[in-house]
Write a structure and sequence with these properties.
Helix 6 links the parallel strand 11 and strand 12 (210-213). The protein has helices at 39-45, 95-98, 139-142, 148-158, 172-183, 197-205, 234-241, 280-292, 307-315, and strands spanning 2-5, 14-17, 27-37, 62-69, 81-84, 87-89, 109-110, 122-126, 131-132, 164-168, 187-192, 210-213, 222-227, 242-250, 271-274, 299-303, 322-326. The protein is globular. It has 2 domains: 2-146 and 297-326, Quinone Oxidoreductase, Chain A, domain 1; 150-274, Rossmann fold (3-Layer(aba) Sandwich). The protein is of the alpha/beta class. The mean pLDDT is 96. The chain has 9 helices and 17 strands. The structure holds zinc ion (2 copies).
Length: 327
């Protein structure tokens, strides 16, 4: 099969003909219909995330059809559509797994990072970690829900019942969560790169009541802010924009350093927290909610062999919405 492969010491993926993956007894083998391109893929290719298993097939926003079911798997069938997320495996017995916090597992497997992912024609996945998803929707539209949507949703729940929410960085995740927030009757303020007028127009078209550069302050204090952009400098900026008792949620898996800031900006019980990975319960809550809210993803399509171009466009901030690869 064809796949895009990351090798030791290279910053580009190579389009290769590789052996199809073998389906283990507790796995399913999947013919991939679409795979989203997430910013985390960029952090892996750019070596900002350490120790990927090389050679590696990246990609953790996979939508496809099952073509083979391992002999110990129950409840999944050939032909069924499934989604494969970032959390590919957990140990099931560490402190965190036993406490219902499998997103923090001490010995996890991550799709497209420590396990091969979806920049390919086929993949295998542990059957217990795939989500059964809508069989008739457009697979390209569904792919960004698998990480931008899912981990974005976890960040969104961490923002609590905030009525007025700020999203710093209005990319794939924010454009999905903005639709859910609006559907729930909340207000979204979008902060883009200063001067990114197209991004601000896109945010307004997606339901934001206010959109401006991240160097601007909102006219009313925010109840909570979620930082989707990988810029640590946005943490003190967002803290200044939230009201007393407000919370700043850092949604990214990787972020540049946070500059020092006056304690007065944190004072009055403001909080900063990070969100790591996802649990399967997040998926069980999120996918039905996204369907009820009628979430429509905005996507740019790339052929599998053009994955490097998709990553480049994401790096340069040239995309509104999400990039998706189709094998
Ligand atoms: Zn564990
Ligand atoms: Zn991701």
């Amino acid at each position: 099969m064809h796949a895009m492969v990351l090798h030791e010491g290279t910053a580009k993926l190579r389009y290769e003909d590789v052996a199809p993956p073998t389906c283990g007894p507790e796995q399913v083998r999947i013919a991939i219909e679409a795979c989203g391109v997430c910013r985390t893929d960029l952090h892996i290719v750019d070596a900002e995330l350490k120790d990927p298993v090389l050679p590696l097939i990246p990609g953790h926003e996979i939508v496809g059809r099952i073509v083979q079911v391992g002999r110990d798997v129950d409840g999944l069938a050939v032909g069924q559509r499934v989604g494969v997320p970032w959390l590919g495996r957990t140990c099931g017995h560490c402190y965190y797994c036993e406490a219902g916090r499998e997103n923090l597992c001490d010995a996890p497997g991550f799709t497209g990072y420590t396990l091969n992912g979806g920049y390919a024609e086929e993949c295998v996945a542990d059957a217990g970690y795939v989500f059964a998803i809508s069989g008739d929707a457009d697979p390209v539209g569904l792919a960004p829900l698998l990480c931008a949507g899912l981990i974005g949703y976890r960040s969104y729940t961490m923002a609590g019942d905030a009525q007025r929410l700020g999203f710093y960085g209005f990319g794939a995740a924010a454009h999905i969560l903005a639709q859910i927030a609006v559907w729930q009757g909340r207000e979204v303020c979008a902060f883009t790169k200063p001067g990114d007028n197209a991004g601000q127009d896109f945010a307004r078209a997606t339901g934001a009541i206010w959109a401006a550069g991240s160097n601007e302050a909102p006219d009313t204090a925010l109840d909570a802010a979620i930082i989707f952009a990988p810029l640590g400098a946005l943490v003190p900026t967002a803290l200044k924009a939230v009201r007393k008792g407000g919370r700043v949620v850092c949604a990214g898996i990787h972020m540049s350093d946070i500059p020092s800031f006056p304690y007065a900006d944190l004072w009055h019980e403001r909080q900063i927290m990070s969100v790591a990975n996802l649990t399967r319960q997040d998926g069980e809550a999120f996918f039905p909610l996204a369907e009820k809210a009628g979430v429509q993803t905005h996507t740019t399509l790339y052929a599998l062999k053009d994955a490097n171009r998709a990553l480049d466009d994401l790096r340069k901030g040239h995309l509104n919405g999400a990039a998706v690869l189709v094998p």
